[in-house]
Design a protein that fits this description.
alpha+beta
Length: 74
């Protein structure tokens, strides 16, 4: 999803992967050296007025580098 240039959040990840483990995936990618960006977005609810959610993205230049290193196939 990140390699396709998508900005993803937890519901998007869950819909595609059937997994609640987005945080673990982002942690692993970062541990492997991928510069995944986090964008924090206020998302208050009645019960949690200070709630913030995270959106994740990978800058397109890193996607291009990965594609070039892999011969254009991902």
């Amino acid at each position: 999803m990140l390699m396709n240039g998508r900005l993803i959040d937890h519901p998007d990840f869950q819909d595609v992967t059937q997994s609640w483990r987005l945080g673990a995936v982002i942690f692993t990618l970062r541990a492997l050296g991928w510069p995944v960006e986090t964008i924090e977005v206020p998302s208050p609810t009645e019960h949690s007025p200070d709630r913030v959610i995270a959106l994740y993205r990978l800058d397109g230049k890193f996607t291009a580098q990965a594609l070039a290193m892999n011969g254009g196939a991902v």
